[in-house]
Amino acid sequence: MDSSTACVSFIGIVDFTEDATWVYCSESVYDLLGYEPHELIGTPSLNLVHPDEFSEVKELHYTTISQDQAAVLAYLRMKHKDPYKGYILCGISRTVCQNVLVGSVSFAAPGPKAMHNASTAQEVKIITPTAKDLEFRRWNDPNPMPPCPIPSSRSHSPDIRRRDRKEAITFDPLPEQSIRTALILDRFSVNCGILYCSNDSLISTTACMGRSFFDFVSRKDEDLVRSWIDVIKSWGVNERGQPSDGGFGFGKFSLLVRGRDSSIRHADPVPSRHRSGPSSGHDHLSRTRDARPSHHHASSGSSYRDRERDRERYRESRESRTGTRPRSDDERVVDAIFSAHSDGLMVILRPSSS
């Protein structure tokens, strides 16, 4: 295995058929497996699985979908295009997103990163016997995101047989599962532009493509979500400081269905010149990184309020013209799973149950 292969992960999306056909592959698939994305899209992903593991991987594909699972990590072998490189041990993350299965594929090797990835997954499945050393779970940790109720219509009962590739389970394409939407974001930009949206269930695909992810995060939650993404990016770095995979992060925030213009940000209040007591230190720490130093005289309070009022009027006018001003019925609380990969960030959203 050359050193460059161990540094990458790619984002992959497959459908619900028994072949798990590739729907999407990010560019880094070439660095890991030697294929260009167009060579894989439309072909069965199970074609890349090691023959000794084919039946178990196919059963895992069925189980993951039928049980509506999220943040599942599996270790198995996948074929490199170069026959001299043979099969590569990979860590594959998988989450059901309504009508597709999304996740990432990365080179698997023992070490702190493997422990971190496994410890943040909701379930770990070891398929390649030699990968037992990669299994690591924290004891007695609660599930960070309780599972969705499994839809009641379950008419598919596969004939489960093992060992022989020719006798692997068979099943018809499975029905859609609980509402989830997967977004792929540009990890190399501050605004995290949306590069891909898996469906229209939570936000419109045509309305969100190319826009900042934070256009769809409520203003009150923006700083919090930005801090989460900063953490995920820091996790998704390998030992050389290069972009890589980095486990799962979980959170909850308010999603704006119609979006807004997140480039318009409120200026932070200018702290009073007459501070006293221990609260002054807290006030200083609460200022955000976007605050700019201001030089005000003690009598400038009214002028500051005037400027704030003017900014608010401008923001309302601009949002009104662009149609991005959110209404109460356009905002919904969602659970989110965040993960970092070599060439993108993955965000999986679902309506929150609480």
Question: Could you please describe the fold and organization of this structure?
Answer:
The chain is α+β, with helices and mostly antiparallel strands and 354 residues long. It has one domain: PAS domain (Beta-Lactamase). Helix content is 22%, strand content 22%. The protein has helices at residues 29-33, 37-40, 54-66, 112-120, 205-208, 222-235, 279-285, 301-322; strands spanning 9-14, 22-25, 72-79, 87-97, 100-107, 123-126, 181-185, 194-197, 248-256, 331-341, 344-351. A six-stranded mixed β-sheet has the order 2-1-5-4-3-6. A hairpin with a 7-residue loop joins strand 1 (9-14) and strand 2 (22-25). The relative contact order is 0.15.
Write a compact overview of the structure shown.
Residues 264-330 are annotated as: Disordered. The chain is an alpha+beta fold and 354 residues long. Helix content is 22%, strand content 22%.
What topology emerges from the helices and strands here?
Blueprint (H helix, E strand, L loop, with lengths): L8 E6 L7 E4 L3 H5 L3 H4 L13 H13 L5 E8 L7 E11 L2 E8 L4 H9 L2 E4 L54 E5 L8 E4 L7 H4 L13 H14 L12 E9 L22 H7 L15 H22 L8 E11 L2 E8 L3
Parallel strand pairs: 3-6
Antiparallel strand pairs: 1-2, 1-5, 3-4, 4-5, 7-8, 7-11, 9-10, 10-11
User: Could you name the CATH homologous superfamily?
Assistant: PAS domain
Q: What's the CATH class, please?
A: Alpha Beta
Give the strand tally. Answer: 11
Q: Note poorly predicted spans.
A: 272-301
What labels describe this entry?
354 residues; alpha+beta; Beta-Lactamase; 6-stranded mixed beta sheet; 5-stranded antiparallel beta sheet; 11 strands; 22% helix; PAS_fold_3; PAS-like_dom_sf; PAS
